[in-house]
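Project outcomes to date are best conveyed with an example. Our students and postdoctoral researchers have been running inverse folding experiments weekly, and each run begins with a structure described purely in tokens. The record below, which covers 433 residues, was selected by the lab manager from last quarter's runs and is presented without edits.
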């Protein structure tokens, strides 16, 4: 608009100049001035016209060129630099996540394999300096490497500790049950905020402004509980490791943490060591024919919930070389059994593991005197996974055990086939005496 207005003023001045010269010619002619003078003035009019026309052409051409240049500048796409990610992680055992690498971002997809229709959550992990320049459709943006996180489970604490990254923890839900001495020390010094179990204070979380809040869940509907945080720009990342049905699949979620921290190389190295030892132990019992019969867990209000045949715990039993009565079932969660059904198995079982919170045989009898009929009770073959407990009730079996299934498997092989790992000392398990 400014250029157009200027052009109109320019033309108006041009017309006035031409009119002035023409008027002068007529005035001179009327007073009888010599023809030579008239011709000179007429020539000046002609020159003025030519000069003004030339300026007009130059002016219009200049405007057109500037507009064309501006249009080209505006239409020229903005380029973003390519990023060289040092190391990549990919799921081999886990079914719940997928990570792919692109020009300047990583795409993390969290899947829900337990549903008939796969429910996928998509996160674009983008370097901080490119966060405003990179756009990935249908994703939540997360700046990497993440520098702060609120963990809503102690298993999330274990992921950070395995990669030596506990400094990113700014808050922990259920902090009372954290086992890690290092993290407990940080909580005591006030470096990490404590959220009571089941009482996640969203206002406190908003004031902390973490890069992510890691929550346990397997569906997009999990976001509804954290909508306030998401609306405020805080990223809520779903960790669905609890849906994994194999120990190595669950442990492999450390690779997700590796991608968030740009520590893929460390995640690959640490997980590979765990997987190697786990598979070596599994191979060592694969050819054994003698497999001790076991029962697991404790009854509750007349019902006995036992692991399904395709569950996380049942996979441990199988890989450790034990015979589990319900290994042929295809359930991935717990199965409800009547007390009498499990009681019959207990009468002939060789081993009883994970009997609730029991630490002594007397404690078991206080729950139900019929336990004294079990063969494992008579032969002192009862084992529980509560060897590593914090003063406030945190159980390391459910913390570091998640990322170290090799240690759990070594304990179980020691229970079922002690000669194979004769030098092994129990790490998570202890005998109930």
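After processing, the design step wrote out the following sequence:
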């Amino acid at each position: 608009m400014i250029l157009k207005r200027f052009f109109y003023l320019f033309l108006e001045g041009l017309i006035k100049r031409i009119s002035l010269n023409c008027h002068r010619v007529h005035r001179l002619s009327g007073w009888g001035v010599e023809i030579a003078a008239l011709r000179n003035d007429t020539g000046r009019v002609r020159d003025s016209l030519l000069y003004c026309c030339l300026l007009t052409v130059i002016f219009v051409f200049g405007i057109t060129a500037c507009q064309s240049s501006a249009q080209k500048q505006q239409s020229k796409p903005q380029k973003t630099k390519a990023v060289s990610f040092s190391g990549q992680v990919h799921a081999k055992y886990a079914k719940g996540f997928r990570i792919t690498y692109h020009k300047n971002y990583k795409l993390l997809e969290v899947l829900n394999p337990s549903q008939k229709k796969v429910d996928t959550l998509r996160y674009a992990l983008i370097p901080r300096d490119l966060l405003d320049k990179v756009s990935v459709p249908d994703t939540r943006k997360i700046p990497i490497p993440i520098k702060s996180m609120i963990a809503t489970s102690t298993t999330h604490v274990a992921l950070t500790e395995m990669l030596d990254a506990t400094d990113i923890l700014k808050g922990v839900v259920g902090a009372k049950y954290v086992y890690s001495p290092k993290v407990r020390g940080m909580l005591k010094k006030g470096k990490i905020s404590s959220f009571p179990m089941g009482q996640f204070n969203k206002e406190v979380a908003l004031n902390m402004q973490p890069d992510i809040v890691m929550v346990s869940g397997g569906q997009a509907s999990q976001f509804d509980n954290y909508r306030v945080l998401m609306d405020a720009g805080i990223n809520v990342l779903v960790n669905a490791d609890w849906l994994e049905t194999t120990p190595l699949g669950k442990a492999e979620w450390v690779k997700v943490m590796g991608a968030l921290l740009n520590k893929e190389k460390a995640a690959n190295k640490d997980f590979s060591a765990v997987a190697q030892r786990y598979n070596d132990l599994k191979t060592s019992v694969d050819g054994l024919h003698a497999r001790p019969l076991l029962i697991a867990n404790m009854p509750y209000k007349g019902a006995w919930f036992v692991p399904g045949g395709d569950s996380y715990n049942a996979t441990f039993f199988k890989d450790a070389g034990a015979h589990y009565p319900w290994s042929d079932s295809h359930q991935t969660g717990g199965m409800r059994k009547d007390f009498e059904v499990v009681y019959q198995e207990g009468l002939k079982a060789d081993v009883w593991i994970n009997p609730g919170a029991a630490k002594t045989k007397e404690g078991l009898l206080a729950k139900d005197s019929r336990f004294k009929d079990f063969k494992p009770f008579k032969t002192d073959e009862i084992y529980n996974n509560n060897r590593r407990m914090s003063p406030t009730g945190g159980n390391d079996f459910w913390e570091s055990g998640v990322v170290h299934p090799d240690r759990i498997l070594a304990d179980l092989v020691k229970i079922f086939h002690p000669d194979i790992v004769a030098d092994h000392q129990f790490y998570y398990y202890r005998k109930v005496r």
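The two ends are 92 Å apart (CA to CA). Residues 36 and 42 are 10 Å apart (CA to CA). The training component of this project remains on track.
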